[in-house]
Amino acid sequence: MWIVYVLRSAKSGKRYVGMTQDVTLRLAQHNSGKSKFTSGHMPWKLIYQETYSGSVEARVREKYLKSSQGRRFLDKELGAGSLPD
Q1: What is the pLDDT confidence band of residue 80, given thresholds at 50, 70 and 90?
Q2: Within 10 A of 57 (CB to CB), how many other CB atoms are there?
Q3: Interior CA angle at 35 toward 79 and 15, to 5°?
């Protein structure tokens, strides 16, 4: 099982989209500074996730959510239209 997840930085309000098989472990890694981009924006909170059976479909969805159309979808879905990405 693969999870596409969205995090929000409590520090900067930035959003981060990723994929993993263990969202709890991955969130802990983001909040411990083990990821280059996310280390400067800690702490992170999980705000959205979707589950997929395969890595290919999860990667396609992750890529979509990182696109401008996907960001608009997340803004609408999360009610975050005025927050920075």
Answers
A1: low
A2: 13
A3: 10
Domains and CATH numbers, the chain: 2-78 (3.40.1440.10)
Could you tell me the end-to-end alpha-carbon distance of the chain, in angstroms, rounded to an integer? Answer: 27
The continuous run of DSSP H or E covering 71 comes out as helix 68-78
Band of pLDDT at residue 71, cut at 50, 70 and 90 = very high
Q: What is the pTM of this model?
A: 0.90
Instruction: Decide: 45 and 7 in contact? Cβ < 8 Å.
Output: yes
CA distances from 34 to 38, 40, 80 (A): 8, 10, 27
